Amino acid sequence: MTVAIEMGQTASGAQAVLDLEELLATRLLVQGNSGSGKSHLLRRLLEQSAPWVQQAIIDPEGDFVTLAEQFGHLVIDAEVHTEQGLQLAGERARLHRVSTVLNLEGLDAENQLRRAAAFLGGLFDVERDHWYPMLVVVDEAQLFAPAIAGEVSDEARKLSLGAMTNLMCRGRKRGLAGVIATQRLAKLAKNVAAEASNFLMGRTFLDIDMARAADLLGMERRQAEAFRDLERGHFMALGPALSRRPLSLRIGPTATHARHATPRLMPMPEAMEDAQAVILAAPPLETARPPRRLAPPVPDLLSQLMAAKPAVREAGAEMVAAPASLEELAERRARLDRILSALLADPEEGFRAIGVLYQDFLVRCRIEGLGAGAPDLGAFRRMLTRARAGISAEAAQDDAWRDVSARAAVLPEDMQGIFMMLAGAAREGQPCPGDAAIARAYGTRSLGRARRVLSYMEEQGLIVCQLDGAGRRIVTLVELAWATAPGDPHAGEALAG
Fold this sequence. Notes:
Blueprint: E1 4-10, E2 15-19, H1 20-26, E3 28-31, H2 38-49, E4 54-59, H3 67-71, E5 74-77, H4 83-96, E6 100-103, H5 109-124, E7 134-138, H6 141-144, H7 154-170, E8 176-182, H8 190-193, E9 198-201, H9 207-216, E10 234-239, E11 243-251, H10 275-279, H11 285-288, H12 301-305, H13 326-344, H14 354-367, H15 377-388, H16 399-408, H17 413-428, H18 435-442, H19 447-459, E12 463-467, E13 473-477, E14 482-483, H20 493-496
Parallel strand pairs: 3-8, 3-9, 4-6, 4-7, 5-6, 7-8
Antiparallel strand pairs: 1-2, 1-11, 9-10, 10-11, 12-13, 13-14
Helix pairs in contact: 4-5, 5-7, 13-14, 13-15, 15-17, 18-19
């Protein structure tokens, strides 16, 4: 069945239609400077397609929450949910086919990227049985897939960019059709923009953006000047879902409107006679008082019972401080390994948030007398990744394991431990870990997601997975030429279930 979405009118007055089924297979990129009508275009597309396909909107400014009242979208306020909660929300939205708006308004740039990545990850990681068709609309996509590093941390940028790349590069087979809108093509990561086959280009003024828009539409460079003359709501369209030749169209009206209307001129009020007294009045007494001095924090009971120890810093394996001797450093590493082993012994450890694990780890360090020398959160993440892979702190000092860690660094942080686990099994000649063990190390109960992690590593050229004649899996680490012994991929599934 072909579903034609009416987007507006062409320059000749004919209806401008978009083939929704073709869009689901080929994705869409929208560009236009602020005020060109991008959000209006996205709203028109969402309204017209709402009866036909599930939708998810990544909304950095809260513009699309008004879709909820008329079209039944569930508004998810990202400010009140954790990253783990948003990932689960994304999975459940796909399972139950509920259209959603992820409202990121009120969050700083760092948290917008982290929460959007978590939600997109949830949409992406559902089981194959739930790969229903879905439009995933990302407004201001240059924020979530930046071409260059900005003011946010590298970790947040990599998480968001990885999620956007998955959406645009690998989402089609999972039923996800990315629709991304950006103010500037030059600010959008090329590997994300390159996956779109349909384009709607609005008004833009910078030469570099006009040149890229002309190239994408197959226009000559001298024709690029036309993008400066486009009116608000007018776009040039090209793509299998729109037109085989560049087509000028005007977007039609929408039934809903953004909460934030475009500012309009208003007459100035009459001049105030006492303006100086009102504007420059002294602040109220309660705000003019000096801030109250806070009492110093009372140390917790465990801290009072412990003797203070010199602070240490993580470097290389875990800790480099000013220990009196190498023996003391080795002892400290051994104690940390014991603490991590006790932490990992909990069957539910793999499914707990990193912050909860870290707090548990700190308490155990205090009990062992390492409170002042406990690693920070970043060091703990790396220690946990190594410990889940079954590599001791002492073994991690080996040059071979340093090489493994360097190769694992190209993967997302949550996959690095899986790569090191496979490397550990391969180096020792042990059987390949089963899906249940991989899923637990990845922090999920989904065996399908564990298999997709292996598929992703294979696509990156890091490993090769093979089955022997008995159906047992063998994983070979490509550049290291290490291979695991054959292992049953279904081992431990009954226990995991």
